[in-house]
């Protein structure tokens, strides 16, 4: 279903059926913004467009079709997208711009009004993009529908950061059934849905032929397989899938990107602890350590539940990386709430934190809260939690000195990533994409370094 739009279509270039020229699309370039789920969608789009006979362009300025696969998680993410649209239009005015992704789903009108934008396609219609751009338009060029009706699962493995081609990311779950009061994601990505297990096994099997480590990701990864009455069956759990992956593929290392705290079941934590093929890395979004704020955020756990899960993980995996997302400055967060949260964070064995400053997302309940925290206070709280995170990270890194850690050598020269998520400066160059044991000798800016030989002669270690 196409959402009816009150749009100024005169600002869009509408193609007239009959004179459409498919060859005019020529080369395409996809630019992804935001999270790993968006990157996975982008990789899938890349395959779909290539399957239609379009060629990838090496750079944006050489493309006839520029696809901007957007994020809308914060106001600055939106601004980033708008700036990019302007820049693409300026540097390559002949390029036809298609905007898709979460921002397109949330505010198609805003995007359609920008110069050079020819198509706006919400997540609801993302799977149709290759058809849309290679056939004459039929309903106009804004395609946004009811995201909650979306049942398709769009995903292809993606390589990690641009410079790091050693850790592909496989999205196996999309959407979210929660309604955290600050979050726009359920409204732009729809209900939770899962990649079928046989498909995941096949994809991981394929990836394992080229890569040592595969990162499993999702919007709400811990909900994988929970949709009732689907092909996954009523009782499938992430741990069940992981057992299959361990049994039926040769993947050397699996890593979970982020799992909501209450989905870190004893079963899942026990499996992580017992398998040397699962990275000892727990990332569980916290958001706040204040009971009152968690309730106002509509988060489904209380601080004591969260602490219980983290302590269970730490008890079984003493050297695991333990990370969380923390949000500061949520509307109505008083000094006392913030201090409660800070103390809670201090009490837990985190090894790193991702700290976010709350920003209003139109369309979410929190955005209309009458008690916003002043921006300056939000920034100050952000700094306080970042400093706490840095101190915790430093003490974790110090604790690793003298230990031997399993790590994946990266494409980035002289660097590796340990299973407990520490970047290591290698004592000497090694072939990328290998799992190696590294003895940690000291600290580096933001990471650690491999020990050199006792005489301080790294070349003695070369084989
Ligand atoms: S769990 Fe909450 S914060 Fe996370 S995607 Fe779902 S609604 Fe958003």
What order do the helices and strands come in, and which of them pair?
Elements: E1 27-32, H1 36-51, E2 55-56, E3 65-70, H2 75-91, E4 96-101, H3 102-106, H4 108-112, E5 117-121, H5 129-134, E6 142-143, E7 169-174, H6 185-189, E8 193-194, H7 197-208, E9 213-218, H8 238-248, E10 253-256, H9 266-274, E11 281-283, H10 291-296, H11 303-316, E12 321-328, H12 335-347, E13 352-357, H13 375-400, E14 404-409, E15 415-418, E16 423-425, E17 435-444, E18 447-450
Parallel strand pairs: 1-2, 1-3, 3-4, 4-5, 5-6, 7-9, 9-10, 11-12, 12-13, 16-18
Antiparallel strand pairs: 7-8, 14-15, 14-17, 15-16, 17-18
Helix pairs in contact: 7-8, 9-11, 12-13
Bound molecules: iron/sulfur cluster (SF4).
The site of iron/sulfur cluster has 10 residues, from α6.
Description:
The protein is α/β, with parallel strands linked by helices and 463 residues long. It folds into three domains: 9-148, Rossmann fold (3-Layer(aba) Sandwich); 169-399, pyruvate-formate lyase- activating enzyme (Alpha-Beta Horseshoe); 404-461, OB fold (Dihydrolipoamide Acetyltransferase, E2P) (Beta Barrel), CATH 2.40.50. 31% of the residues lie in helices and 19% in strands. The chain is built from 13 helices and 18 strands. It has helices spanning 36-51, 75-91, 102-106, 108-112, 129-134, 185-189, 197-208, 238-248, 266-274, 291-296, 303-316, 335-347, 375-400; strands spanning 27-32, 55-56, 65-70, 96-101, 117-121, 142-143, 169-174, 193-194, 213-218, 253-256, 281-283, 321-328, 352-357, 404-409, 415-418, 423-425, 435-444, 447-450. Strands 2-1-3-4-5-6 form a six-stranded parallel beta sheet, with helices on both faces. Helix 7 (197-208) crosses helix 8. The longest helix has 26 residues, at 375-400. The radius of gyration is 23 Å and the shape is globular. Bound molecules: iron/sulfur cluster. Iron/sulfur cluster binds next to helix 6.
